Amino acid sequence: MDPGSGGGVWLGTRNRLALVARTGDIAPGTGGATLEGLVLGKIDINDDRQIASAARTSAGDVGLWISSERRELKLVALQGSEFEIAPDDKRTIARFQGQPGPDGVSDFFDFGNRGLLFALDFTDGTSGIFTARLSHHRTAEIQ
Predict the structure, then answer these.
(1) Could you tell me if 91 and 124 are in contact, meaning their C-beta atoms sit under 8 angstroms apart?
(2) How would you write the chain as a 3-class SS string?
(3) What residue ranges do the domains of the chain occupy?
(4) What is the C-alpha separation between 123 and 109, in angstroms, rounded?
(5) What are phi and psi of 141, to 5 degrees?
(6) Is 64 within 8 Å of 118 (Cβ atoms)?
(7) Which residues are CB-neighbours of 107 under 8 A, at least 6 positions away?
């Protein structure tokens, strides 16, 4: 990678690294925004070789993505977007809990073999703690 091209997330072994995402790539699930601030605070990988990472988009929002070992990046949650709490109950994400000021550096999620754990604040003043995992169909399932 060109040192001037920004950050990237790679997955694999020493001799078989594969690019998952890099700064400037289209941010999946955002309607065309690009990944600008990759790896805000931390990146986690579980025993199934799935990666969880937060990033800032070119629209200025912070999102949380999961990637499978096949390098498929799936949006879990995006600041300013609707999030389904239950059937017929969608709320707009105000921020990720633990998300600090302008630099976006935070440990606002935890990724283990039971799934991705994260907390959200909504624009209506409510909040919640959620888990997400990739299904066998490679879609992010929120619980």
Answers:
(1) yes
(2) CCHHHCCEEEEEECCEEEEEEECCCECCCCCCCEEEEEEEEEEEECCCCCEEEEEEECCCCEEEEEECCCCCEEEEEECCCEEEEECCEEEEEEEECCCCCCCCCCCCEEEECCEEEEEEEECCCCEEEEEEEECCCCCEEEC
(3) 3-142
(4) 20
(5) -105, 125
(6) yes
(7) 41, 42, 98
| The pLDDT of residue 84 is above 90 | yes
Hunting for tokens 């070992």 — which residue is that?
A: 69
- Residue 62 half-sphere exposure, CB side, CA atoms within 13 Å? 24
Q: Tens digits of per-residue pLDDT, 113-136? A: 677 888 899 999 999 988 887 664
The structure tokens listed for 78 are: 């995006």
